[in-house]
Backbone:
């Protein structure tokens, strides 16, 4: 019998003690061998830890053992004296006096990718095939720190606005978004699905907490392999009650983006620098009606409108270009999508029910958000279901909230990986997904 | 074309402006009608918002309209004068001068449950069947605020310890925990599964960021309906590199619990009071070997040891009772579980390979955490797989990390709903799950 009481004094230093706090003198640090440059009489040994890299110097005679016994991928505990050294990439250098091997990679096994290079210059296919290793590259891991920053910024902002965080089920009996892109599941003899969105549940929870959010996986059985679709992605969802219109939702998103980018600038400065990212301005975001946007780009770029009820990806790109050129904005809200293109829970515009009180947010010409006002009235919701040939009895649990009262409400869903992709100017959403799932990719 | 620029000055007050900041005078507030008590000449109207309840007084002649037109579940915008009133349950009262109906529930439809009662005194079955409505009860919603607080405390602590937050796939090709309790899925003609845990991925990410965590859903196709099993639950996972032993993981968990309970005490004081919860002490947590714990309870409670290699639920309860009685501790770490009861990635104790370098954390007699040190050496991992009749070639992606080097590491997974259940002294884990999934429950 023993007691666990809590942290004891650490007997090692962190690399951040040196790089960020400027510690010099005797140190003991652990880390993974990132590179070895053997110069004969001495060798440079670069260690990798979560905070960055630190250069160590192995000098024949000052330390026991042989540098030839070391290899990339080993984890070690080293002792030495750290001092400032302008020529070292990080401005500090550790003169080694002792080294102890904590773990070793498999003997005779080469790294499949040059992860210690600044840019790996490897195809996306190869990077994804060796994801467990390629993520160890300094730039690759900066990508997912930025993504962490976005999700933190989102949550912190939501909490500051009195939203409650919820966790809704991913195994569901019915789906909100409709269509064929649903994963089916055998559930104890019943048919079940993977949730395409938390839509029913987040609306439900508005009746409980007024304002709710969730950042969680959603699943879409999209059969087409494109540069912007994933079969599993992270959706940043929020839903808010007591709105005066769907504009309140767009305002909330604008403020959220502003907060999040400011947070990234402060807390993820290092990673923004590693990836050389300039954050976009979000002091004001243009908002344009769907039908007007189509006309604008048709006229400016001399492009025929083929389908008045849908936006083609190329049109999205052109709308993005238009507002960049005319208003220097990377973002644009497109509002009032046609009713037939929106789900049954979307509120129609009372002044013209062919359109909905809804919006998408485009970022550098790509849709990253879909949102809008929802129907809160029982009769109106049932009527819209019936008009679409749906049976309200299939939605008894969802309709329970309308039956027993709901405030006017609306919300949105943001694709985290797409937002990250556009922020980092990547060309494929798989670049900003830790372990992407697509039609041909189920591993790693 | 328009611009979205950000928040404008609000034209309504929040209930918290009154209840927490003591605002008095003319107010305009919105909310849902929680109860109406019609006294004839006047009526009490209690509004519900996320922050709590506020009592309004409807006095004949001072306001237009008829109180009979109002009903529970309506959302309204009211105007009036707020003043301190000792006899009002919240210490404040609004004398109404105007009321506007924002939305109405379905006509002639009664609330299926007395949600405005302090305690609903309804069976769990009924509460779950009407979950979208029953959650509107003040005590019910406090439960899930506490749960939000736990997850926030967990994350904040992890960030303070330089852990990186990750998002790992829930659709997977193979599973770490083994056994039959896996949900199967058709994935574009391939066989896929729902992740039982993020185990492979969190170990993988230790090679990238040293320390990682995730709070996300996991899926277990458990066929038995018990008071402590769910088929989908939230797992709080962390995994850390450069450990000296699995004790480092237990220390981290102890510190996390301490931080989280302190955070709850500060930020969720209101909800703790609503539910009358006393937080447990976590200044030190006893730690006892699996085999020793079995002997201890066998001797003290005169109970025969039937299976030396497993803990029966009743034994867990008795171990919890033992440490409460002997050491006044609600928590106890049970360490060194038998190897045959732990997954293939668990590190065996070199001094006795029949046991593992692992632990469970029991809270009031129930397992809420499983953790331990993992194998980091390629040869050792392959050998253990082979000894279990597994084919290492089925685990090429996982073994990639061992092949290319991993620090000594370990971690754990905490069942969020179970932790909440024991903290709130509930008897069924469904009480602390928003929308539980079990063998017979796929809705709401």
Residues:
């Amino acid at each position: 019998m023993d007691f666990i009481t809590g942290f004891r004094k650490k007997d090692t230093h962190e690399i951040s003690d040196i790089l960020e706090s400027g510690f010099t003198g005797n140190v003991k640090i652990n880390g993974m061998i990132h590179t070895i440059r053997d110069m004969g009489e001495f060798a440079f040994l670069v260690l990798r830890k979560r905070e960055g890299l630190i250069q160590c110097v192995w000098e024949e005679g000052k330390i026991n053992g042989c540098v030839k016994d070391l290899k990339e991928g080993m984890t070690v505990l080293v002792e030495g004296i750290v001092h400032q050294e302008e020529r070292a990439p990080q401005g500090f250098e550790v003169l080694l006096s002792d080294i102890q091997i904590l773990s070793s990679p498999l003997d005779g096994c080469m790294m499949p990718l040059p992860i210690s290079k600044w840019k790996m210059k490897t195809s996306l296919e190869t990077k994804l095939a060796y994801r467990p290793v390629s993520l160890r590259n300094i730039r690759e891991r900066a990508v997912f720190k930025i993504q962490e920053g976005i999700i933190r910024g989102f949550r912190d902002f939501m909490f500051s606005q009195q939203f409650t965080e919820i966790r809704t089920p991913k195994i569901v009996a019915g789906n909100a978004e409709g269509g064929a892109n649903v994963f089916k599941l055998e559930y104890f003899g019943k048919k079940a699905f993977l949730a395409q969105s938390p839509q029913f549940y987040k609306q439900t929870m508005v009746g409980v907490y007024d304002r709710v959010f969730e950042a969680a996986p959603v699943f879409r059985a999209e059969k087409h392999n494109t540069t912007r679709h994933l079969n599993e992605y992270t959706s940043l969802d929020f839903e808010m009650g007591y709105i005066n219109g769907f504009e309140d939702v767009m305002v909330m998103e604008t403020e959220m983006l502003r907060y999040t980018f400011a947070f990234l600038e402060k807390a993820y400065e290092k990673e923004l620098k590693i990836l050389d990212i300039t954050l976009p301005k979000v002091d004001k975001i243009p908002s344009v009606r769907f039908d007007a946007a189509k006309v604008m780009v048709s006229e400016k770029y001399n492009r025929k409108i083929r389908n008045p009820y849908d936006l083609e990806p190329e049109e999205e790109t052109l709308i993005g270009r238009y507002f960049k050129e005319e208003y220097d904005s990377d973002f644009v809200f497109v509002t009032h999508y046609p009713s037939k293109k929106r789900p049954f829970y979307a509120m129609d515009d009372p002044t013209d029910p062919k359109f909905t009180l809804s919006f998408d947010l485009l970022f550098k010409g790509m849709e990253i958000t879909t949102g809008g006002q929802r129907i809160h009235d029982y009769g109106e919701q049932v009527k819209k279901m019936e008009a679409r040939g749906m049976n309200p009895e299939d939605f008894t649990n969802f309709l329970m909230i309308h039956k027993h009262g709901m405030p006017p409400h609306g919300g949105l869903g943001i694709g985290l990986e797409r937002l990250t992709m556009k922020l980092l100017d990547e060309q494929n959403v798989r670049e900003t997904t830790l372990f992407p799932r697509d039609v041909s990719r189920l591993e790693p």
Observations:
- Chain A has two domains: 15-103, 138-432.
- Chain A is about 30% helix and 30% strand.
